[in-house]
Specification:
The complex is a heterodimer of chains A (277) and B (322). Chain A contains six helices and 16 strands. Chain A is an alpha/beta fold. The longest helix of chain A has 14 residues. Chain B has one domain: TIM Barrel, CATH 3.20.20.70. In chain B, strand 5 and strand 6 form a beta hairpin. In chain B, helix 2 packs parallel to helix 4, helix 5 crosses helix 6 and helix 6 runs parallel beside helix 7.
Chain lengths: 277, 322
């Protein structure tokens, strides 16, 4: 039941055509593209590197939002020059992505799963939600955002069969405050928690999971350079004993019980209790 | 005279090492090559310079290790590696299957470290050459000291030279007053080639937290931001030495690559550009073939150093007064 035991297979550069572009909310963009080979091999929780159309900036790591038939999609918040450039793509434009990359979520034999998503973290949790619901597993989405208009795609998750609990920082929709507070007060304890979102939310999720005694996997966001495991820039400290720890001499051989694992390669999904963050 | 692109000779020689293509992938940027294999036909690049290995395991620097900057990025990885023992036991064998040249890289904290690790790397048939990284800017003080001092550069290179007959590439730092004098020392001490340049020291501060953005505080700047610095360094080193130069620093396009060849580089190394698009090195090779054929040039070697017109020649100021 370790995360990260699968080898990345069949990744490649996909020269895709943009099929559709939707502005889900101001500054929140969904882009669908034609990439059947990517769809075939993507597992829930994996990501792609979007190669900048203008070639001027580093590639951008984005979770694969949807993957069905010929169409995959990415969902992102416009927050800088790179995402702005991607947001300007229109139907018929070309988009190159490399992937799928990283190791996705691991589905244990859980019967009741709580997915925690914060903000743009929603972009990496549709595939796991679909996977779980299709297997008949009770799937809850704990979904938090700064404000109501940023709670995008709720209808979609509801239509997929998720139970949804919402929270907004400003109280404009759902419970006021953080969604992790709702998780902490849940009447029925899930037997697996999957989370994706900003780092403070993931830490809070890890703390709640530890208190509830429920195993949790968190999908980390980090600044990437290569995105493929080549540069060791995006690391996170992790127990050396973790199945996801990179090969490294142990204590007594000049090593340490903590090592740095690559978020892009060994992750982005880690067992929360194995992180030393 | 019509030359077919396929007839253009792009090979480059680094000491005894013949590179069929003049494109190396920079140390620390490309893993062991395996990481990029799904995205690039590795037979279409000249070679991979592996991540530096040290005598003892190194955990590397605290996070964050990367900061995007205008036209480039800062990194401070800190030579994370499992140490030479583990490396030889578990990693080196994998390199044999690469369809391109594989160049080992040694880093250290004393002259003895370098010769110890280099001697052990020299036993590996999987490695076609060794790069001596005397210029890592991201390890507590000592890392770059060697490349910033002609005397220490000479000592390290002599020590490594004495333990291996493999082609030696010495990687120089731009963070020096006179790179030409360091280059001469490295050549005199037995370097077969010089890699010019490593990253430029830099720093970025978060104005919200009032703290440095990098866990290591300082880092190394790479990408197009440093290209003119690198081109000048290649130019100056080319005037000072006769050994081949591997030019590097912000190369992303054919035009960038040509600047380095014309400044005096026999080969180039590509690092940060792979993070933008892993197809860039192969694209540059294809375009270089077309370009040279179009210009009627049969061999890349014919254009190496062609832009060398001297530095600060008085002639260029004559008649400038009007």
């Amino acid at each position: 039941m370790a995360v990260g035991m699968h080898a990345v297979s069949a990744a490649s550069v996909h020269q895709a055509r943009v099929l559709d572009r939707t502005e889900l909310a101001p500054g929140v963009v969904l882009i669908g593209f034609d990439a059947p080979d990517l769809v075939d091999v993507t597992r829930p929780g994996q990501f792609v590197m979007a190669i900048p159309p203008g070639g001027e900036r580093a590639a951008t790591a984005l979770g694969v939002y949807e993957a069905q038939g010929n169409r995959a999609s990415i969902l992102f918040f416009v927050c800088g020059p790179r995402t702005r450039e991607l947001s300007e793509l229109r139907e018929g434009d070309h988009l190159a992505v490399s992937g799928p990359l990283g190791n996705g979520f691991t589905f244990t034999n859980a019967r009741h799963v709580a997915i925690v998503a914060g903000g743009v973290g929603i972009a990496s949790v549709l595939l796991p939600a679909q996977h779980l619901v299709r297997k008949g597993i009770r799937t809850q989405l704990y979904y938090g955002a700064r404000t109501a208009r940023l709670l995008v795609e709720m209808e979609r998750f509801a239509a997929e069969g998720c139970e949804i609990v919402c929270a907004t920082d400003d109280g404009s929709f759902g419970r006021p405050g953080f969604v992790t507070e709702a998780l902490a007060e849940a009447r029925e304890k899930p037997d697996l928690i999957l989370a994706c979102g900003p780092s403070p939310m993931l830490r809070a999720t890890a703390a709640v999971a530890a208190k509830l005694g429920v195993p949790a996997q968190v999908s980390l966001e980090e600044t990437f350079a290569c995105g493929v495991g080549g540069c060791w820039g995006c690391v996170v400290p992790i127990d050396r004993a973790s199945a996801q720890a990179p090969g490294f001499p142990g204590p007594g051989e000049g090593g340490s019980d903590v090592v740095y694992a690559r978020v892009c390669k060994e992750g982005p999904v880690f067992w929360a209790h194995e992180l030393r963050w | 005279m019509v030359i077919a692109p396929s007839a253009v000779d792009l090979s480059a020689r680094i000491g005894a090492l013949e590179l069929p293509l003049p494109t190396l992938m920079g140390s620390g940027c490309y893993g062991s090559g395996e990481e990029y294999a799904p995205f690039v036909d590795l037979s279409q690049i000249g070679g991979v310079v592996l991540k530096s290995v040290t005598r003892w395991p190194r955990l590397g620097n605290p996070t964050p290790r990367l900061v995007p900057t205008p036209a480039g990025m800062l990194n401070a990885i800190g030579l994370q590696n499992p140490g030479i023992d583990y490396y030889l036991r578990h990693e080196v064998a994998k390199f044999a299957s690469r369809p391109c040249k594989v160049i080992g890289s040694v880093a250290g904290f004393s002259v003895d470290d370098y010769s110890y690790v280099a001697e052990r790397l020299a036993q590996c048939d999987e490695l076609h050459a060794i790069e001596v990284n005397i210029s890592c800017p991201n390890v507590a003080s000592e890392g770059e000291t060697f490349a910033c001092d002609p005397y220490l550069t000479g000592r390290v290179v002599r020590a490594v030279r004495s333990v291996t007959g493999k082609p030696l590439i010495v990687k120089l730092s731009p963070n020096v007053t006179d790179i030409a004098s360091i280059a001469r020392e490295a050549q005199d001490a037995g370097a077969d080639a010089l890699a010019v340049i490593n990253t430029v020291r830099g720093m970025s501060i978060d104005v919200n937290t009032w703290k440095p953005r990098l866990g290591n505080v300082t880092g190394g700047l790479s990408g197009p931001a440093i290209r003119p610095i690198a081109v000048l360094a290649v130019y100056e080193v080319a005037r000072a030495v006769t050994v081949p130069i591997v030019g590097q620093g912000g190369i992303e396009t054919l035009s960038d690559a040509l600047e380095f060849f014309l400044a005096g580089a026999a080969a180039i190394s590509i690092g940060t550009a792979n993070f933008t698009d892993p197809r860039i090195p192969v694209r540059i090779v294809d375009e270089l073939r077309e370009y040279l054929a179009h210009r009627g040039v049969r061999s890349l070697r014919e254009i190496v150093g062609k832009a060398n017109v001297g530095i600060g020649s008085p002639d260029q100021y004559e008649g400038d007064e009007g």
